[in-house]
Amino acid sequence: GDGYVFEGYGPMMKKSDIVLGNLETSISRRGKPAEDKQYTFRGRPEVLKALKDNNFSAVSIANNHVLDFGMDAFLDTLSHLKKHELSYAGGGRNREEADKGTIIERNGIKVGFLAFTKVVPVVEWYARKNKPGIVGAYKVHEQEFVRTIKEMKTNCDVLVVSVHWGKEASTEIRDEERYIGRSMIDAGADIIMGHHPHVVQGIEIYKDKPIF
C-alpha cells in the first residue's frame, strides 16, 4: 500500500503537532518526462492520502524533481495538494505565490514555513511574475530570500525554512551551504531544514538555532 514507507516513523508523525516534508515529485497523470534527466519522478494523486494519514501539515515543492514532467504536471501538483488540504511552500502559479509560504498555528504558536532550492536543473524552472515555478536559494538569490524570510518572520513566532541543497551522496557540508544557512538565520529563520544529498550530513547550531 501507499503508506508502507511510513511504517517506521509514522507513529511518531501522528503524535506530532506539525509534520513538514519535501515532496520530491510531481503529482499528476499528465506530462512527458524531461528528456535530458536520468531520473524523472511523477506520483499518482492517490499517494497524497498517505501524507494526510501520517499527519503532514505542509510540504516543500522547491526541489529538482517537481517539474520533471513539465508545467501541466506541476500545476496538477498544486491542485492535488490543495484538494488534499496539504499546504505547500517554495513554488506556485507565479512568483508571488511561490514566495508566500504558509503559516500553521498550533497551541497558540504560529509556525511559518518557507522553501527554496539550490538544485535547479534549468533556469526555466524559476517562478516569475506571471509564470509558474519554484524559488532558488543560490548565493545570487540572497537578497531575494533574505527579504522573503524577513517578511514572513513578522507574521509568525517560529520560522522553519526548507532548503534543497548539498552534493548527493556526500557527507561534506560545503562552504556555500554553510554561508546560506547562516544568512537565513540572520534574516530571521529559526530552523533550517536541509535535504537533497540522500545521506545524513550534519547539524550546525548557529546563534542557538539548528541548521540541518
Low-confidence parts:
none
Shape summary? globular
* Backbone structural class: alpha/beta
Mean pLDDT: 97
SSE order, as H and E? Answer: HEEEHEHEEHEEEHEHEEE
- Tally of separate helices: 6
What does the model show?
There is one protein chain. With 212 residues, the chain is α/β, with parallel strands linked by helices. The chain has six helices and 13 strands. The strands form five sheets. The protein has a four-stranded mixed sheet, covered by helices on one side. The protein has a three-stranded parallel sheet with strand order 1-4-5. A two-stranded parallel ribbon has the order 2-3. Helix 5 runs parallel beside helix 6. It starts with 9 loop residues before the first helix and ends with a strand.
Quick overview of this protein structure:
With 212 residues, the chain is of the alpha/beta class. It has helices spanning 10-15, 48-53, 70-83, 95-100, 142-153, 175-187; strands spanning 20-22, 26-27, 42-43, 58-60, 87-89, 91-92, 102-106, 109-117, 133-134, 158-164, 191-195, 204-206, 209-211.
Question: What keyword list fits this structure?
Answer:
212 residues, alpha/beta, 4-stranded mixed β-sheet, 13 strands, 27% helix, 23% strand
